[in-house]
């Protein structure tokens, strides 16, 4: 059962008729007292609550009612209804525990979409438990790994994909945010429709409207023909807004409007167009900090993160590094027609020790560079090491690498390998030259898979 709370009989009746037509059981009330009378005997699956009661236009009474509902019945999801001019009220309501908000005048499709999404997300389903079971339910062919953290993420992705929930994907650069966005689209009801990718970090503020919403002929000097924007291209499908943390504040306002109202106007046109899109955003920045600093709009933040998926860094799931490396090598076998190409066991072990600040992207680039520059069919540690961080060993000069170009662990490996070569694998001499004990050196040699002789006189 769904519960509508609104003191305006016309609005209440309109929502009840809309939802009943779609097969929902619905009840409506017009005051806080009636609300709690209902809640004493029935637990609704969802409450739609209008914040602005006619006797109190500030939203104070509606906010107090929300607080009381969440205090007494915290498990019941609440969708807020408010006017466009009072979105700040909805943001306050989200902080108080509401799960979503709808602005008036609403679009019926948007209301139904939001209701179905929240009801789907509120269902508790058993975890699949293994990668094999996940593959039987969903399509994750391009996502490699078996780490428990990754499997938990894929479980979440599979569940939310069937809804139209806005998803925010966070994580360091190179962790695979675009692949996750594609997986959400390919496991959704929109999979046969367009999946449009937009790198917001590569669009200047002056081109933002034209790129996302399109323009009409004559809208500006070089606008010689009409142009379709990315949102219109994604109609009935999904739009992936990458690097959303790079948007300036003026562009954030324009984006919020289209996400909120599902309408936009092409640059130079006065005619509004309606769009039906699933919005998936991604960023490697901390949006909560940006909200606190005033560089990212709080209302936009709450609009895009109904579901947040945080991807772990590759160093947090090191056991997936060999699987990813093998996946890349198998692809390169076909591309470069080298069927016998493989990574040695020692190379696999060594790759797991790298911090790989660039994550999966850095690993892929390292493997591909090594394949391109090595004539050997079996790639060993030395082959990989030569192509690490720019493709060359450190020179004999004492110039330090640029900050961020190499990790401390990578630098340690390179220094030990170079010292072993210089001292012809004499462990005692290498240890002395590096200022560490032989025992400490042995541990590092084992760690990095560097061969050595037991006699080190």
Automatic annotation (TrEMBL):
One of its GO terms (biological process) is phosphorelay signal transduction system. It comes from the Bacteria. GO terms for molecular function: ATP binding; sequence-specific DNA binding. Keywords: ATP-binding, DNA-binding, Nucleotide-binding, Phosphoprotein, Transcription, Transcription regulation. The modification 4-aspartylphosphate is found at residue 50. Residues 1-119 form the Response regulatory domain. Signal peptide: none annotated. Residues 143-372 form the Sigma-54 factor interaction domain. Coiled coil: none annotated. PANTHER family: C4-DICARBOXYLATE TRANSPORT TRANSCRIPTIONAL REGULATORY PROTEIN DCTD, TRANSCRIPTIONAL REGULATORY PROTEIN. This is DNA-binding transcriptional response regulator, NtrC family, contains REC, AAA-type ATPase, and a Fis-type DNA-binding domains. It comes from Dyadobacter psychrophilus.
């Amino acid at each position: 059962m769904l519960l509508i709370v609104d003191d305006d009989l016309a609005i209440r009746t309109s929502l009840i008729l809309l939802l009943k037509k779609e097969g929902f059981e619905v009840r409506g009330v017009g005051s806080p007292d009636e609300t709690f009378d209902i809640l004493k005997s029935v637990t609704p699956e969802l409450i739609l609550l209008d914040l602005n009661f006619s006797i109190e236009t500030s939203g104070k009474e509606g906010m107090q009612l929300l607080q009381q509902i969440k205090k007494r019945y915290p498990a019941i999801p609440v969708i807020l209804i408010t006017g466009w001019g009072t979105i700040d009220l909805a943001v306050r309501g989200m902080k108080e525990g509401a799960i979503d908000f709808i602005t008036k005048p609403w679009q019926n499709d948007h209301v139904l979409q939001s209701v179905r999404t929240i009801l789907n997300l509120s269902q508790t389903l058993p975890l699949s438990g293994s990668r094999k079971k996940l593959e039987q339910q969903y399509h994750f062919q391009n996502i490699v790994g078996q780490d428990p953290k990754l499997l938990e993420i894929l479980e979440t992705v599979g569940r939310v994909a069937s809804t139209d929930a806005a998803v925010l994907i966070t994580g360091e650069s190179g962790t695979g945010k675009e692949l996750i966005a594609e997986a959400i689209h390919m496991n959704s009801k929109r999979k046969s429709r367009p999946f449009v990718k937009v790198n917001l970090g590569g669009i200047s503020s002056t081109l933002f409207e034209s790129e996302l919403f399109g323009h009409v002929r004559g809208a500006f000097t070089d606008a010689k023909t009409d142009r379709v924007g990315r949102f219109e291209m994604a109609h009935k499908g999904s739009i992936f807004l990458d690097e959303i943390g790079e948007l300036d504040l003026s562009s954030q306002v324009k984006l919020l409007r289209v996400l909120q109202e599902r309408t936009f106007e092409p640059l130079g046109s006065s005619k509004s167009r309606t769009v039906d899109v699933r919005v998936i955003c991604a960023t490697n920045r901390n949006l909560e900090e940006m909200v606190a600093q005033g560089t990212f709009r709080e209302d936009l933040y709450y609009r895009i993160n109904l579901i947040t998926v945080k991807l772990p860094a590759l160093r947090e799931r090191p056991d997936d590094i060999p699987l990813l490396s093998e996946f890349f090598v198998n692809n390169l076998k076909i591309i470069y027609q080298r069927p016998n190409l493989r990574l040695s066991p020692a190379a696999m072990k060594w790759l797991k020790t790298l911090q790989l600040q660039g994550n999966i992207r850095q690993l892929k680039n390292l493997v591909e560079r090594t394949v391109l520059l090595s004539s050997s069919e079996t790639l060993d540690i030395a082959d990989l090491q030569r192509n690490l961080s720019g493709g060359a060993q450190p020179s004999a000069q004492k110039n330090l690498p640029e900050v961020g170009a190499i990790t401390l662990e990578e630098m340690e490996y390179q220094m030990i390998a170079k010292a072993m070569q210089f001292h012809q694998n004499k462990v005692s001499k290498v240890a002395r030259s590096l200022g560490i004990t032989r025992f400490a050196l042995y541990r590092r040699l084992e760690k990095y898979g560097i061969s050595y002789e037991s006699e080190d006189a």
